[in-house]
Structure formats: structure tokens, C-alpha cells
Amino acid sequence: MKTAQKVLFLARWYPDRYDPMTGLFIKRHAEVAAGFAEVAVLYLRAAIEKPQGYHIEQKVDNGVVTNIVYYGTKCSLPPVAAKLLSGFLFIKAFIKGYRFVLETFGKPDLIHVNVLTRLGVFALWLRFLYGIKYVVTEHWSRYLPVTGTYSGFFRKIITKNVVRNAEAVSTVSKNLASAMQYHSLYNMHYMVLPNVVDTEGFVPVFGKQGNEKKRFIHISCFEDRSKNISGLLSVISKLAALRNDFECVMVGEGMDMENMKAFSIQLGLKEPQVVFTGLLENENLVSAYQSADFMVMFSNYENMPVVISESFSCGLPVVATAVGGIPEYVDTQNGKLVAAGDETALLDAINFMLDHYCDFDPKKIRNDAVATFGKQAVAKKLRELYNYASR
User: Fold this and answer.
1) Is 0.90 topped by the overall pTM?
2) Which CATH superfamily is domain 6-196+374-389 in?
3) Which listed site, 55, 124, 212, 262, has its alpha carbon 20 to 30 Å from 176?
């Protein structure tokens, strides 16, 4: 079997001029694949500043030929007509972008669809027209029963056809694969493809000096419906009534950021009990992990958050909810699991971890993370996926 030489990633999300964080996990997969194949990315992004027209931005980033098509969608049409126009402009953006890829990169041997459904339709179309095989990697939690967002008669029919005709389907967890199959999204070859962690950047500080107070960290996109930050803050307020030897660092930004700050004040929490840092990137984010003693997530639903993998890479134990793919990776050797929404259990778990985080072996946590989420480990999985598709 021969691995495909030219691979085109069709990305539903990808870092762009407006948001450097969106789809970062897809970018990391593309960069890993670029270690053994020629890789290009095609990403379609509705432009904010331009009401109409198309602009293709190409750059080579860490070996990946990245092509972003910015296209205008602003109009004053009624909602239904605006939606139809938006769909037409999206299709036109894909055609322009794909033609540009053919001119500058060449015809791909394999297409790697990241997140269904629209991009999968394009891949299916290219397969029938030109015989280009495709694989699918799904990251979206919409298939999970708790979200209830996988709906629409035509969407379901189209998605079933896209999945059935793919050479293989990969997901970030077994749980997500099971959820897709529950919705009759059948394929002969499902596999787990973990998200990549830069284990050379996210490193522990062994033998570090302890903080003046014990510190745990929470990192998220600050969307309360899924991350349940309000529940975590409520637990912290109860914890503050029991002890004063801790501080919680809340890292990130998002739609509910200001509401969560206001709720924290309403609960009577103040620095250093709770510190909101905003978005941290690169060295600043690594330093935040390294300065913590453990990480906490109280999500209502998840797939497998990258922040857990990054915590492990930094040797940190984790307290998290037993939802999605999290129980596939968090166990008694690297953390504690609680039921979603169970504030009493979370209070007990954090209280326990504050006194026992030193009992966890950071070297083992780190080594296991490298073996699962490191670039070499994920490259091996990607090779398997592409080899299977190219058989």
C-alpha cells in the first residue's frame, strides 16, 4: 500500500485573519500530515469587511500550502433569500478555490474532509466526477444525544451518503464514532484519530517551586451551555467557604466571558480566588499550565478537549466530567471523573485534588500523553488512515 502523495484538506474551521484559534486542531493534523505527504488546505471564510467579491489568500505555513477564500455575503435580502444567496456564494467560493488549488498545487490524490456536511458534498462530487477518493474526520459534537442539534431530513440523507462513500471515517473518540453510527452514519472503516499536541512546547517543569497557594486552572472557549463555567464558579464559591488555600485561573475568551465575570462577582469571588486572564497563546499559555497544580473542566458535553491533552503533556492531573470521549483518556492514574452537572461531586473532587495532586506521577502522565497525542503518534495514525484509503 502506498500513502497518497498529494492530500487536500477541506476544512470547515481553520485559523484565519479574524480568529487565530478556530480550527487549530485541524491545522495541527495538516502539519503532521505534511511530514510525509504534500498537503494543501482549502478553507472558505465569509468576509466581515467586504460586502461582495472573492479574495484568495495563499501561504505556506509549516509545510502546509494554506488557501483561504474570503468571500462576501452581506446583503439586505429577506432571511430566506439571504440564506439561499449565502449557499450559492459558498458553492461559488469552493469552485474558485478548488480551481486555484489545481493551478498552484495540482490534482490531489486524496481529499481529507474535516467536519461535515457541506464539504463532504464537494468531496463526494469530486469523487464521482474525477475518481478522487476521500476520507472524513469529524470533530463536531452535534451528533451527541445531549446536544440535539443533528437534525433536518435532507441533511441526514446527504450526510449518510457522504459517510457511506468515504474510504474511511475518523473521529477524536470512540464515543463520537458511536454517536455517528447511532444516527445510521455507516462506514466500513471507522478509526480514532486523536488531536495533536505539541509535546515539545507543552512540557512540564519538574521539581518546580510550589505556589503560595495551590492553583488549579480552567481553559475553555467560555461558552456556558457546553462548558458549564457557571457551575464551576458556583462550586468554587462553596469551596471558598471551606478553605482559603487555593486560587483558580480561568483562561480563555468567548461569548459568555463577561457574563461569567459578572456571575463571579455576584458569588462574592474575587482575586486571587478566581483570576480571569483572557485568551492566552503560545508561551503564555504554556506558562499558565506550568504554573498550575491541576486542571478542571465541568463540561455538560464534549468530544475530547485538546486542553485535557495539553494538561497531560505538561504533567498535570485533571478533574473532568465523564462525558463524550473524556473517560477514554482520564482514569485514576491521571485524574478524577465526576458526573456532568453534579456540583457536590465536583466540590469533593477538587477538595481531594487540592490535597492529593502530588500523589499523581507527572512523568507518567507526560509520557502517556506523548505516546497518544504526540506528533509521531498521530502521524502513525494518519499514515494508517491514508494507506487504507489508498489501497
Assistant:
1) yes
2) Glycogen Phosphorylase B; (3.40.50.2000)
3) 124
